[in-house]
Amino acid sequence: MSNEKNLSAAELAGIVAKLQAELAELKAAQPVPEEDLVVIAATACAFLGLKGKVKAIQFAGRATNTLPSA
């Protein structure tokens, strides 16, 4: 990519394509927020007619059984 102000349409299209690909990768890498997960679980339970209780949940990349050191 050049730093010139006058870019051709093909160069601009290439830049846009690269940015769209990077944006798609970033969106795919985002985990599902905890609030959304709770809503999905509650909706599934309501659909099935169950009274669901969340007993435990573990997210990738989070330590669940560690205590802070004093």
Please describe the structure with a list of short key phrases separated by commas or semicolons.
mainly alpha, about 70 residues
What can you tell me about this protein's structure?
- The chain is mainly α.
- The chain has helices at residues 9-29, 34-48.
- 51% of the residues lie in helices and 0% in strands.
- The protein is built from 2 helices and no strands.
- The protein has a domain at 31-60.
- The radius of gyration is 22 Å and the shape is elongated.
- The model has no long low-confidence stretch (mean pLDDT 77).
Fold topology:
Layout: H1 9-29, H2 34-48
Q: How would you sum up this structure in a few lines?
A:
The model has no long low-confidence stretch (mean pLDDT 77). This protein is mainly alpha-helical and 70 residues long.
How much is the average pLDDT? 77
Q: Roughly what percent helix?
A: 40-55%
Q: Which class do the helix and strand fractions yield?
A: mainly alpha
Q: In total, how many beta strands?
A: 0
Q: Helical segment tally?
A: 2
Query: What percent strand?
Result: under 5%
Oligomerization status of the protein chains:
single chain
Shape: elongated
Low-confidence stretches: none
Radius of gyration: 22 Å
The H/E string reads HH
Q: Note the main sheet.
A: none
Cα distance spanning the termini: 52 Å
